[in-house]
Every structure is written in C-alpha cells, then in structure tokens.
Amino acid sequence: MAIDARDAAGFYATALGRHVALLLRQKLARLWPRMEGLSVLGIGHAGPCLHPWREAARCIALSPNHMGAAPWPAGLANLSCMAEAEALPFADLSFDRILLIHGLEQAENARRTLREAWRVLKDDGRMIVVAPNRRGLWAYAESTPFGHGQPYSEGQLARLLTGLFFQVEAQTTALYTPPLLPAPPRRVAGLLEKAGPVLAPQFAGLTLAEVSKNLHGVLPAGRMATARRVLAGAGFSRGT
Prior knowledge:
This protein has helices spanning 5-12, 15-31, 47-50, 110-120, 154-162, 186-199, and strands at 39-44, 58-64, 79-83, 95-101, 121-132, 166-174, 206-213, 232-233. By secondary structure, it is of the alpha/beta class.
C-alpha cells in the first residue's frame, strides 16, 4: 500500500523525520560530493534530500501520480511536479543524476519505473536507489513512509537493478536509529550510524545502491515513447 505524498511530507516535518532527512543528506553528499551544473531528478518523495543540491544543480522533484502531489518548499527554486513514474514526461538522456527514494517500494510496477529511469538517465549518469531494508525495523514502522510497500534486501535490490541493465557501482546502508519518538540526540545517532555497519549491517533501516547504465546490455524491452504528459504540478518555480 503506497503512502500519500502529504503523509510523507508530514513525517519529514516531525523531529524524527528531520533527523532521517539529515542522515540521508549526509550519506548522499558523501556519494555525490560535486553536483555543480548537473541536472537532477528525484522520483518518489525526494524533496527533503534534494535541498543541499538546489543551489548548484537543476533539480526536479517528481511525485508519482498514485502518491499525489507534494509542493516544493516555499522560497526554493527548481520544480516540483506529479506524473506517471512508468511514463516519465522527459526526453531520453535528460538527467545526469537520479535519486529514487520512496519510489521503488511504493511503485505500482517497479520494473517499469526502473526502465523509465534508465531511459532518461544520461549514458554517463548515475542513479541512487534508496529502499527500506527487509530485515530492518523501519520496514515495519507504518507511521513512517518506509513502512509501506515492498522492502528489499541488498541482494534483492542488486539483482533487480542488474537484471534491468544497471551496473551496481556501490552499495551501502543507513539509518540504524530505531523508528521511535523522540528522535535521539545527534551525538547518539552519529554513534549508531558509525557502529551499525560494523556490528549489525543486516539490520540497517535502509539499503542504498548507486548504479550506472550498463551500455553493453540491450535497451530494456517495452520502452515507452519519449513524449509524455505531466498530469499535475505543484509548487512550480524554475530556477535560473
């Protein structure tokens, strides 16, 4: 069952949600430290994680139509829209980077969503997929966006991606903080994030995979037409 975009936005407005967003932004910044001049597409509910890049990169936060629209926060440039994740309203090879968060586990058809991401990603581009870890506590926390939809183990996520002509460049984990209120102090959370991958990596809340396109494979079957129609928009404001 997919969570509504407004519920996801509500979670990220809480102390626990802000804590999760901070941890994810730190992890993503280490994976992608330089974003100047790049075009970035966030699919799912990516707005909270795109904020650090909005000044340097051209960002679009796309909410799948089954989740509903989530406006870009007031005063922030770039674009927020709603469209079909299985039929993205962008031409082939449009984006340098794609962030898929609250998108894969919530997808009505995960394989089609990933095929569309492959299509719009540039040949030298990179994508990060963030999904709830099947063994982690967060996959069962229905009060959070991660407790809905299909969770994945690291192996399941890697097999799904490689089967759709992506090359897994790196895999990592995140979110060892229990999904409890109130959020722990930042120092405690930092210690958990450092110790978790060493002591109990299988119990991480999230699994992340950074992938590139496998250009030695065949273009995925069932490719959609490149001309798409945006179904709705929210919080539209283009940056320069």
